[in-house]
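Sequence only, no structure available. Ideas?
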Amino acid sequence: MRVVGLTGGIASGKSTVTAMFRELGAQVIDADQVARDVVEPGTPGVEEVARRFPGVVDASGRLDRTELGRRVFGNPAERRALEAIVHPRIREEVERRLEALARAGAKVALYDAALLIENGLQKGMDGVIVVWAPESLQRARLAARDGLDEAAVTARLGAQLPLADKRAHATWVVDNGGSMDETRAQVQRIWEEIQQSG
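Reply:
I predicted one. Tokens follow.
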């Protein structure tokens, strides 16, 4: 089974494009969902996070993401401690899901990860799809979606690798700066190419 990475920048429309691939029958593993699943109540992941970061798990065993975020963001040592707990579990769970898809007969799986390039994961992939949009459109979408001012928008965009840098790693680019129909047509073409190249 081939694994194709799917990534983009903040407010580039990656979620919309992922949904379009799913509508065409693509099997998608969502890195954000896996990251949430490995710290669900009762999991070894959430128990280890609770031991390392007292007070971030409530009485029902649920992770208080806001409190955890407050502790780790802006504190590189604490962020590394959290990543040391969570990242190996994410890798194991992704591998488990990929193996299950392969056993079920899937020929291709898409791995949807915002930080695919930043984490160097594209190196092990059979191709990379980058969802791209002009920065002006990213800024407008981000401000409207999250109610952010210009400084906050700039900070969020600055926290990720610029889309131009991600695009340099792309096998396929979905230009999401136009209409939904234009985006859908690109997704359809790319999905057909991926299936035919196997």
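The chain has a mean pLDDT of 93.
Hope that gets you unstuck.
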